[in-house]
Amino acid sequence: MRKNIFYAQSGGVTSVINASACGVIETARKNRDKIGKVFAGRNGIIGALTEDLIDTSKDSASAIAALRHTPSGAFGSCRYKLGNIEDNKVEFERLIEVFKAHNIGYFLYNGGGDSADTCLKVSQLSASMGFPIQAIHIPKTVDNDLPITDNCPGFGSVAKYIAVSTLEASLDVASMARTSTKVFVLEVMGRHAGWIAAAGALADTEEQPVPVIVLFPEVKFDPKRFLAEVKKKVEKFGYVSVVVSEGVRHEDGRFLAEAGSTDAFGHSQLGGAAPVVANMVKQEHGYKYHWAVADYLQRAARHVASKSDVEQAYAVGKAAVTMALAGKNAVMPAIKRTSNSPYRWKIEEAKLSKVANVEKMMPKSFITKDGFGITKKCRQYLEPLIKGEDYPPYKNGLPRYVRLKNIAVTKKLNNEFTLK
Which phi and psi angles does 102 have, rounded to 5°? Predict the structure, then answer.
């Protein structure tokens, strides 16, 4: 009997995560002789625990194809982390119960580091609880902090958005700097790794110099050095743009923007690095400033997505199904860069045991010695990831994004499950 696929999206969504879903569903449909249906979890792993499954076969081929250019999570996402199998046996027994009821033999989980951990735990069900399941992690994270893979689907488009926004805002400030705003501060995502913040420096090119200061989580924040750099740039150019990662820390390890609370994964809740930095500049130099927080805008901006990012997101979804059909378990399709110029890449297999709970920080060789910019090596790494345009179709001036039917699969279990 052909086994069904359980596919789910987890964590913060991106502008291209649905392209991965498209890759999964279209590839599965091309292998109907080997695969039954693709059931999507409504709101991630929660959909599996509560037996809230979506039958993707109810949507047309054209609707599924439109996922490729539609942002956000088509099936809903979540921040819910499974505990250890030994300490949370009830959860895993519930997963088995649902998988058995719906003939699910493949578990494809689309997310970042915490999702890789969840996927690894599910892959261990065969050994620990005697249930055959093949678990494949599909990489996704705007933070670009998964190990082994050259880059993470979702990052290239965010990097493009931040580079474009920094350039455009800088031109705006430059036009007003003589009598008005001299400093623009843009806060971007990045709790521990400064990949997104680094992309802001791409706005500064040899052909069109733009004064940009980048504040990385990897570099401890020194107010005196920062304020001196701001003054230096303003005196030379008349203005400056500052791109600050939400994860920038003081010398003592405290986040500039720590709110004092935590999210569902136990991470410190952040928000507000931009106004902190902007107020420092105002108090020290008296410069007029404006600040903005890219927040959801940076990860939802499908209208300015990177073509290479869209292609890679689709490719890892397709590869996940191929790996599942090949009998693989506890693996992740990883992107391997084979050439910078011209930019070439391929998909390889990475073991989840080497991916889960490991964060990839920016190499020291990617950050300039003064700690405020990116090196030529970093630029060579970033530029191919933002190249190419893949515009969605438009109607009446707005992008045409798809909303799937998301028809629920009939429940087969009588008992309800209460989330912890």
Answer: -115, 20
Q: Which helix (H) or strand (E) holds 329?
A: none
Give the CATH number of domain 3-140+303-358+389-399.
Answer: 3.40.50.450
Question: Given the structure tokens 């390889």, which residue do they identify?
Answer: 348
Beta bridge partners of 4: 104
What superfamily does domain 155-302 belong to in CATH? Phosphofructokinase domain (3.40.50.460)
Closest CA to 77 of 270, 299, 398: 299
Residue 143 a catalytic site member:
yes
DSSP letter (8 states) at residue 292: E
Residue ranges of the chain that CATH labels 3.40.50.450: 3-140+303-358+389-399
| Residue ranges of the chain that CATH labels 3.40.50.460 | 155-302
Return the SS3 of 1.
Answer: coil
Helix (H) / strand (E) element for 335: namely strand 331-339
Query: Which residues face 38 on adjacent strands?
Result: 5
- Report which secondary-structure segment, H or E, holds 139: strand 134-139
| Cβ-contact 163, 195 below 8 angstroms | no
**How much is the pTM?**
0.94
HSE, side-chain direction, 13 A CA sphere, residue 175: 6
In this prediction, residue 270 carries a pLDDT of 54
Segments of the chain scoring below 50 in pLDDT: 260-265, 269
Predicted pLDDT at 34: 97
Q: What is the dihedral of CA 394, 398, 400, 406, to 10 degrees?
A: 180
Q: What is the pLDDT of residue 263?
A: 47
Catalytic-role residue among 52, 59, 143, 145:
143
| CA angle centred on 168, ends 297 and 372, rounded to 5° | 85
Q: Tell me, what's the pLDDT at 266?
A: 52
> Rounded to whole angstroms, how far apart are CA atoms 34 and 10?
26
| CA dist., res. 255 & res. 2, Å (int) | 50
How high is the pLDDT of residue 85? Answer: 85
How high is the pLDDT of residue 260? Answer: 43
